[in-house]
Design brief:
0% strand; mainly alpha; 10 helices
Length: 248
């Protein structure tokens, strides 16, 4: 007689409702912090609104070009080397793949039940996890081997990298434990994964996460400021008093 294999289900160990409620609470906190940061940056970001003087066509041209350069292409800075560009891109796009995976799972699988490896949720999650691990490997290698990088990598940066690495690795371990029906491992690694992920999100506004998402916005403001100055729509004094984005 064949014995049916029952895959481990995460909701049996941690309530899905608890995770959803905690996630919503964290989202509200992060949103409030980000809004506060944007208010604090209002002088830097003011050219975005004032750039309407350029006309809709030019405003949207600058907007989409900045979107492509700073987010799609990850043009970190003119001085950015290829290795740095690759590591930033891998971590950034890997994180977005994980966000897409989590969002899709929340919509299509609200009960948090087991999904086959070929499901889009797991495909996106595994792809994002691998990208982040590769990107982190490059970042950590550079931080250890590059003397200039070591000088500008602080304890907070290492803490952020450690949390991201822990969340990613425990995510894979949770997946392996589920596939192998390793009951003795699933609870520990799953809870550690949830805690590491929660810490990452709660600390996001104070770490390089805010840099990754805030830099394109500030860069957009800088480009609008340059365009306004070029068109003579700002006085020279206004151009010098609005802070520009410093070189990375």
């Amino acid at each position: 007689m064949e014995v049916e294999t029952v895959m481990l289900s995460f909701p049996d160990y941690v309530s899905v409702d608890l995770i959803h409620s905690f996630g919503i609470g964290m989202g509200i906190i992060i949103l409030l912090i980000v809004l506060y940061e944007f208010i604090r940056w209002r002088a830097i970001l003011s050219p975005i609104g004032r750039a309407i003087k350029l006309g809709p066509a030019k405003w949207w041209t600058i907007f989409f070009k900045t979107l492509a350069d700073e987010i799609v292409y990850q043009q970190i800075s003119v001085q950015c080397g290829r290795i740095k560009w690759i590591s930033h891109s891998l971590v950034f796009w890997g994180f977005l793949a994980l966000v897409a995976s989590t969002t899709t799972n929340y919509i299509n699988n609200p009960s948090g039940g087991w999904l086959p490896l070929t499901n889009i949720v797991r495909l996106l999650g595994n792809l994002g996890g691998v990208m982040i691990l590769l990107g982190l490997a490059i970042v950590i290698y550079r931080a250890r081997m590059d003397e200039n990088k070591r000088t500008y990598t602080f304890a907070a940066d290492y803490f952020f990298l450690t949390l991201l690495l822990l969340a990613t690795l425990t995510g894979f371990l949770t997946e392996f434990a589920s596939e192998l029906n390793a009951v003795e491992l699933i609870y520990g690694v799953y809870v550690i994964h949830l805690l590491a992920s929660a810490a990452l999100l709660l600390l996001a506004p104070f770490t390089r996460f805010i840099h990754a998402f805030g830099r394109p916005v500030i860069k957009l403001s800088e480009r609008y400021l340059e365009a306004l100055g070029h068109e003579g729509l700002l006085k020279p004094l206004e151009i010098t008093t609005i802070p520009l984005l410093g070189a990375e």
